[in-house]
Amino acid sequence: MICKELFEAAAEIDETVAAPPECLAALSRRRVPAQVYDRDQLFKNMADGKISLISDYPTALKTIKPAELAAALRKYSTRKKYRVQAGRSKIYKYHNLKEIIDKWTSGRAIFSITDMHIRNTPIEDFINPKKLSTFNLYCDCDDPAASLEMMTMVISSRNSITDSHTDDSDGSNHCFVGKKLWLAWETHEGLRHGLEDVERIPVTDKARFDMKTFLSLKSARWFVVDDGLTLFLPGHLTHKVITLENYIGVGSFYLSFPNWLRTLSRWFIHAPNWQANESREVNQSLIPDLARAATSRYKRNMRQNTAAADPWGTRYLPYSVAAWKRQYPKRIQDHLLRDPLFQCCYQVAINRL
């Protein structure tokens, strides 16, 4: 009944997610439930490319309760204006934070903002971004590689929709207040079956999606992110997101030792979004910076004791190498390893063995 009511509410916002009665049993089987935090399982899921939805991940507001967050953000006075996707037509407008929170509180506007950067801003006074990035190698990099982290506030109104898309990296999202329905599937499996992705193919209006096709995919999963839940989503998954209740959270992208080989392999095989309209030189310039940062961090961790190094997931490199070998057939492994740049990245992983 909960599944039925949830998708009925979502279909009022986006008719493409309507779930006929015959789909409900299949939907129940595809749900990703929230789990109690287990660092060992989280790092293994990162290596295996599995979704983690965690009910008690150790991240927190510093000084205020989630219910007080909107009021605190309103008081954060700034003339800076942020790009807001407004209305069902998703036109872009610019508003300061007070205007955004006023819209969010009123409940009358449909809007979403995902690129409100919080690093080195007063918002860090009450939101602790370090808790979501204890293992993030992007934080050891200089720009432009560091900019791939994108630690941002996510503020969206009920009824807002994020169309089917992929991100460059694995991502984390922590919900302070609100509720979002996520539907996720492996990008290229979806494309083969006609589910579109706005980052991968030209889409003139809205990416094609229908529930029966979604449920026919082996990779299809769905879940709800609401108050206090933290999501870790692998980057190979296209996702469509519907805001069911006014939402405030924080999101970022990450590269870690556990997902090191899996993420880089995907970039070398399919190319990241940031390279889609550029030459391969983009890849040539960023990947070495990431490899240097990972190597430096690895060496620092090895000079420390196991407990100090473990938050970075360094000791999961052997597991990630084994997971990589399970994921890719030998011919693809050999193809990747013939690239000197990928070989350099592979050495970062096997040096731990």
Which regions are unreliable across 5 or more consecutive residues at pLDDT < 50?
none
* Structural class based on helices, strands and sheet pairing: alpha+beta
Q: How would you sum up the global shape?
A: globular
| Helix-strand string | HHHEHEEHEEEEHHEEEHHHHHH
Classify the beta-strand content into a percent band.
15-25%
Distance between the termini: 49 Å
- Major beta sheet, specifics? 10 strands, antiparallel
- Helical element count? 13
Radius of gyration based on Cα positions: 20 Å
Please state the average pLDDT score.
88
- Helix amount, in percent? 25-40%
Strands, count: 10
Description:
The protein has helices spanning about 1-15, 25-30, 40-50, 70-75, 95-105, 185-190, 210-215, 260-270, 280-305, 305-310, 315-325, 330-335, 340-350; strands at about 50-55, 80-85, 90-95, 110-115, 150-155, 160-165, 170-185, 220-225, 230-235, 235-255. A hairpin with a 4-residue loop joins strand 2 and strand 3. The longest helix is centred in the C-terminal third of the chain and has 23 residues, at about 280-305. Helix 3 runs parallel beside helix 11, helix 4 (about 70-75) runs antiparallel to helix 5 (about 95-105) and helix 9 packs parallel to helix 13. The protein is built from 13 helices and ten strands. The model has no long low-confidence stretch (mean pLDDT about 90). By secondary structure, the protein is α+β, with helices and mostly antiparallel strands. Strands 1, 2, 3, 4, 5, 6, 7, 8, 9 and 10 form a ten-stranded antiparallel sheet that branches.
